Structures are given as C-alpha cells and as structure tokens.
Amino acid sequence: MDYLAEKYLRPRKIPSTACSGCGLGVIQKALVKAIDELGYGVSDIIWGTSIGCAGRQTFATWKGDGFAGTHGRVYAIARGLRLAIPPEKKLVFTVGDGDAFGIGFNHLLHAARTNTQMTIAVCDNLGYQSTGGQFGWTTPSGVKTDSSPYGMFEPNWVRDDMDVLHILREAGATFLARHVSMDGPRLEATFKKALQNNGFSLVHVIYPCTTNFGNNALGTRRAVDIFRWIKERAAPLGEEREGVIWKTGIYYDASNSRPEFSELMREKVGEIHRRYQNEGAS
Question: How far is CA 181 from the centre of its chain?
Fold first, then answer.
C-alpha cells in the first residue's frame, strides 16, 4: 500500500475490487494525488458516489465522510448537502457516464445552473458495462456492443456539434475538462484546478473496460490493447488529427467567477432576515 492509499483510503478497499486492467483505479489515484498536493486532509473532503462500475468500485473507499446516491440523484442530494455543511468543506464525486449524462442529466444541469460547489469525475467506460456492455451516451459511433451488434449509430454526446461539455457550459458550469485515464500528470493538474474552483467543476475521463467493452468492441480483453486503442484516438486540444474522438484538456475555465450556490443562498436568506427585522422595528 503506497502512502496515498494509507493516508486517504480504507484498507479493506485496497487493492481495488475492479476487474483486472480496469482504468478506474488510475482515475481515483489521480484525484487523490491532486487532493494531497493541494494540502487537503481526510476531514476536508466529502466523497459521493453513484451506481454502476464507478460507484461500486469507489463507494466507501475514502477514509472520511461519504455517501452514495441512487442512480443519477447524487447531484440533487449534493445541493441540499452543500447548504448543510461548512463552506470550507469540499464535495468530490466519482460517477459513471450513464449516471451523469443519462438518468442524472437533469439534476446535473441544475447543479451547473446554480454553480453548486462539487468536483465531479465522470468515469466513462463508454457504455453500460456493469449490466452487460450495452451502448450508452458516449459510445463512439460504429462500435459494436451488446445492444448494437451492427455498430452504434445513434448520435452521441461527444461530437463537435453536440458535445455534452458545451451543453454544461451553457447551463452555467464554471470548470469543464476532458481527459483519457492515461493522461497521467495532465489529468492530475486538471483535477487540481477543478478542486480550486468554488463552484461546479466537471472532468470527463475516458477509461478502458477490459471485460465488456474490450471484448465486444475490440475482440480482446488484453488491457494493453484497449489502453492503446483509446490513447490512439485522443489528442490535446489544438493538436487534433484525423481519427481523434477525444480532444483532451481544459475546455472552459471560469473558476470563481460566479457566486457559489450555498454562499448565494446564505446571503439572500440573511438579507430577508434583516429586512424582516427592520420591518418589525418600524
């Protein structure tokens, strides 16, 4: 067990319960490293999780306070929780692509609209892998899955003309980024910036599934082959080339430019109290 795991994670969850070769652990470690480098302790972070591979593998891993939301509802719970906890505490979430961009998308939009402080790592294994490998909201076009044996042909959320990050920006998000799990130090640096935004931050991270996606889409469960397939289809923003699906890096950074939800609510409630007291005194 390395020093980060010993400092921040529960021993019974180490090593991960994820499938061999799964990229979830890489994402979680990058996020924990960012937390550590910013000087946050276990008591500074409340870690939320969802349903599916991302939620199942990261639930109750954090040594400190945490919670799990029903499918797609973690963002709604978080808005209420944000009002109840001290302002200096940080909310951090590891959720799946189906949770964030599917069943929970309406709640996600409202969290962005209100600029509620939360740092969300959307751990995207390119479909519904925990239920057999059906295609999802970000499955690349043409990819064979359990529910698209002739290739996924529906429009997805990762297109220049219909990118989910652009939708979230219009909804009010103040920090948005996309990476693949093998981005290493670049991913860690992005998580650090996301955590320093007192508002809504979302980092969309593509990672390999060695069980269902690899087997159905690529005909292999060898982790190195699946990692290579993803890496070959990713490039930093501004360095795009033919065949790139995922443009990686920071898409939008307006950190700390809008009032955070709980701060705005406390300020407005304070104004109402003062007005009431003044009216009562007159």
Answer: 12
**pTM as predicted:** 0.96
How confident is the model over 114-146, as pLDDT tens digits?
999 999 999 999 999 999 999 999 999 999 999
CA dihedral 82, 87, 92, 97 (to 10 degrees): 40
What secondary structure does DSSP assign to 200-250, as a single string? EEEEEEE---TTHHIIIIIS---HHHHHHHHHHTEEETT---TT--EEEEE
DSSP for the chain, written as a single string: --HHHHHHB-GGG-S--SPTT-SHHHHHHHHHHHHHHTT--GGGEEEEE-SSHHHHHHTTTBSS-EEE-STT-HHHHHHHHHHHS-TT-EEEEEEEHHIIIIITHHHHHHHHHTT--EEEEEEE-SSBGGGT-B--TTPPTT--BTTBTT---S--S-STTS-HHHHHHHHT-SEEEEEEGGGTHHHHHHHHHHHT-SSEEEEEEE---TTHHIIIIIS---HHHHHHHHHHTEEETT---TT--EEEEEEEE-TT-S--HHHHHHHHHHHHHHHHHHHHH-
Question: pLDDT tens for residues 188-199?
Answer: 999 999 999 999
* Mean pLDDT for all residues in the chain: 94
Tens digits of per-residue pLDDT, 205-224?
A: 999 999 999 999 999 999 99
Residue 72 falls in which region: left (phi positive, over 0), alpha (psi -120 to 50) or beta: left
User: Domain spans of the chain?
Assistant: 3-281
CATH architecture of 3-281: 3-Layer(aba) Sandwich (3.40)
Instruction: Please answer whether residues 250 and 226 qualify as being in contact, where contact means their C-beta atoms are separated by less than 8 angstroms.
Output: no
